[in-house]
Design goal:
CATH topology: Immunoglobulin-like
Radius of gyration: 22 Å
CATH architecture: Sandwich
Number of helices: 2
Strand content: over 45%
Distance between the termini: 82 Å
Structural class: alpha+beta
Helix content: 10-25%
Number of strands: 8
Largest sheet: 8 strands, mixed
CATH superfamily: Immunoglobulins
């Protein structure tokens, strides 16, 4: 085999071997899809922040941590650290529910009145930590908008 032919063969095999490897992961899109009121009491309440995590990649992403701060009308409601593992399938969407406990003293009367509305204006800032293809990625995000709010199994909080 000539030297030139051997070089072309090795180059072709090398390219073929790399063709199946995915590239670096694209960042997922993280959006607040809805807020669910789980319980209200004299001192505060419990909310579920339900996030849609969209994976644009052709391989699964595995979430290991998600940290977020939540504001309503520029009033800080609370912070959440979510350490439960979750998987976002390739080219798919996964709901991640972040439980948030808040106190009335921190949010004021304006927030109380919004709990009865159909949707609330919010700002959410945070960071998701995910792994894919042997790579850990930290995805910072900031989202502003309006999210639907609903009440499910509202029970008094002691």
């Amino acid at each position: 085999m000539t030297r030139w032919l051997r070089a072309r063969l090795l180059l072709g095999l090398g390219a073929l071997g790399c063709a199946g490897l995915p590239g670096l992961p694209e960042n997922p899109d993280i959006q607040l899809s809805r807020v669910v009121v789980r319980g209200l009491g004299v001192t505060g309440g419990n909310l579920d922040l339900v996030l849609d995590v969209r994976n644009p990649n052709q391989f699964d992403l595995r979430g290991t941590r998600l940290v977020a701060g939540f504001e309503v009308e520029d009033t800080h409601v609370g912070d959440v650290t979510y350490d439960n593992p979750y998987t976002v399938p390739r080219d798919g969407v996964t709901d991640v529910t972040l439980p948030l406990r808040f106190t009335w003293s921190g949010v004021g009367a304006a927030f109380r009145s919004l709990l009865g509305a159909g949707d609330i204006p919010y700002t959410m800032k945070g960071q998701a930590t995910l792994t894919a293809v042997g790579t850990t990625i930290n995805v910072p995000f900031t989202r502003r908008g309006r999210a639907p709010i609903s009440r499910v199994r509202v029970s008094p909080i002691p």
